[in-house]
Amino acid sequence: MRALVVADEVDERLWAGIGPGCDVGLVLAAGDLPFDYLEFLTDALGGVPCVFVPGNHDPDLSGFTRHGGLFLRAGFPQAWPGPAGGINADGRVVDVCGLRIAGLGGSVRYNDGPNQWTQAQQARRARGLVRQAARRRRRDGRGVDVLLTHAPPRGVGDREDPPHRGFDCLHPVVERMRPDWLLHGHIHPYGEHPREHRMGETRVRNVVGKHLIEFTPHEVRT
Asked: Model-level pTM greater than 0.90?
């Protein structure tokens, strides 16, 4: 499975440089990108699925449910502000294109904007995500292939300024889930090439901009 993985920075070259012949079967987005850009990418690639988590500059997507083809919020029909056809993996475990993807969006809280969490709030959300992944694994024996986050783990490619500190809770999440990959955005490299990190067997990559990554799905993991 070859995926186009994007976050935070629009790559102008993609507007004219991708199409159905690019051999990409999935778009993964780690937040803070215009939703119409994500829609363009999926359409240009022939309608491939798009799995995303929101970043701290994205609108609030919480509280939406879908019923009978309509999006509801607080029981009332409301237009969903997310990308058309996109799969919001924030706080969820989803199976797409043979991959099991767990998502945890948002950044450390630094003002009153949406998709920001204190360390304690994100830790509670992370525990719920771990429980979901464990239930899935008990049911079918498959573990998580990709942990898709907006912010990085604390001390693993993050920064010291308050808005760009990583989340402490991602360390126990990786320990419990043991994903092959943790893909995050939020930390702009500003022309540098950020190095890839390791947390045990998990490869941690800053995917700001665009990356093409080959994934090997695991049917059953021990």
From this structure: yes
